[in-house]
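Record passed on underneath.
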Amino acid sequence: MMKTWKNLEKGRMRGTGMAVHGNTAESEPKVLHLAGESLEELSTLHDFFDNLAGEAGWTGRLANEFKLCCEELVTNTISYGYAESHAAKGIKIAVYGLPHVVTMEITDQATPFNPFETGEPDLTLDVENRPIGGLGVYFVKQMMDEIFYERTEPPGNRLILRKFLLQNLEENP
């Protein structure tokens, strides 16, 4: 089983177990199951995150970051991971919340692929000269604080994205 974990350093304070101030029990996840058949399912994904953001009291920015990251990874799974796969399709999105961290887990049975091992795009190139692809995963890496990939059995993928809510740490030390 292949695992990679990456804590993305962006010059900001990072949380670990301290970030939750002793609260280690994550909330019951909010779960969305997609068939993984068509990009038309993205509207269901958007509705899921809009409802979740309203229930959880997320800022617009936090909601948009999770929605964009999830949309990018689900689009890649549908467009590439299942494109030539004969496996049973399906994508599960689970979102967990703690007072100071939000975790999103995306699992599928698509062809095993770690999107976080792809190279960084060359942002110095003009748009006309830049190869197609790679910007979406780059944006995921920029927006999330921690990312994790695990190959699963039966063959598939598990992605975990984590965002620390630092403004809450400052308000509630």
Summary: Residues 1-6, 8-24, 168-173 have pLDDT under 50 and may be disordered. The longest strand covers residues 156-164. The chain is about 30% helix and 25% strand. The helical segments are 42-56, 60-81, 135-143, 166-171.
